Amino acid sequence: MRHPAQIKGSTDLKLDGIRVLDLSRFLPGPWVGLMMADHGANVIKIESAEGEPTRHLGPPVAGFSAYFRNTQRGKKSLVLDLKSAEGKDIFKRLLAEADVVIDSFRPGVMDRLGLGYETARAINEGIVYCSLSAFGQSGPLAQRPSHDLGAQALTGVLSLQAGGREPALPNLPMSDIAAASNALIGILMALLRRAKTGQGDHIDVSMVDALVSWLPHIVSPVIEKGESPDLTRERLYGGAAFYEVYRTQDDKHIVLSGAEMKFVENLLTALGRPDLIDVCRKPWGPEQEPVRDFLRATFATRTRDAWDKFLSDKGVCYAPVLQLHEAWQQPLLRERGMVVTGDDGVDNIGTPIRFAREPGQPRLHFAEHGEHTQEIRARLGFETKKSDPASS
User: Are residues 44 and 117 in the same domain?
Assistant: First the structure.
């Protein structure tokens, strides 16, 4: 299913007129720029001579990696050497007209280049300057390099394995996305405030800070006793029989994803075991093992899809565990606009923030490295060099 309006783009979106300079790389910062571009912002992706690393992560699909397609669409590409005098001059010219800067360099790099927040504010007092890093712009670990896995390890999140199992590689780069979400929220807050004061701000977003802010559900024993939680007694980590993964007859899986008593009563009654309902009123943990044993044995008697059909009208919180390609192919994602097919026939991830008025409209143009360098240099009054990527 195609969404022509989303593919072509239009005017009058929420962020029309907002100008963004995106210096970031990989996932967190580029995701922020992507969200803003999807909602009408004019985003210039500033790249080094080597280019954005995700251009080459994974096999190309119609000329671009899927990673690049789904973090960089709708942006212009400007190649700039920020260490050169001319590169600094061009960047400062862009600062004068920009609304937002996104950077993910190690803290202090932009300051050493003479292009940090204080310089930007002197040029443009309304600039909103967002700095993304692993450990923050200040503090004892500010200069330590890291990616998502390090942030998950240091915050204790990596230790939160269901059933108290050994730490394992996470299935998602949670700190990347958590930090990106905070950055987007912070930028929009600062722009809203700027509309009243005329003043921008410097936003310090840390991957570690972002993950810690996601822990209200599990920190009670830490705060109360100074101890880590016993995960075998935690609802979300294997303590509740109705918040668990169960293997089916065909070696696939189904999950029960809601331990509220109404869901317990509905399923156990439908399965002919209302006698087990009161067991689920007991504390999370080994006390619920009789129910877990029954559900393990029961789910093993039918295939995943048979259980999906059976459970669909039982008023139960559940879902089949799909492989990624199965999830991608289900009608839900296309109906919600989360899978969008471009004119090149390639599927792309849609935009998740849905407005009734002026909805986001992803512009499925993927800039070649330096594609807009010549255009931007000319607009700012700089000569185009033969070495510019877009001048050949």
Answer: yes
| 210 and 130 Cβ atoms separated by less than 8 Å | no
Phi, psi of 279 (to 5 degrees): -65, -30
The CATH number of whichever domain residue 31 belongs to comes to 3.40.50.10540
> Are 320 and 305 contacting, i.e. CB atoms less than 8 angstroms apart?
yes
Tokens (6 digits) for 79 = 């190649």
pTM of the shown model:
0.92
Catalytic site includes residue 176: yes
What is the Cα–Cα distance from 10 to 354, expressed in whole angstroms?
Answer: 16
Answer positive or negative: Cα dihedral of 22, 27, 31, 37: positive
Give dist(CA 257, CA 277) in Å, integer: 16
Give residue-wise pLDDT tens across range 38-90.
Answer: 999 999 999 999 999 999 999 999 999 999 999 999 999 999 999 999 999 99
The domain containing residue 287 runs over which residues?
Answer: 243-316
Catalytic residue, candidates 103, 176, 204, 209: 176
Kind plus residue range of the DSSP H or E element containing 20: strand 19-22
166 and 284 in a single domain? The answer is no
Q: How many domains does the chain have?
A: 2
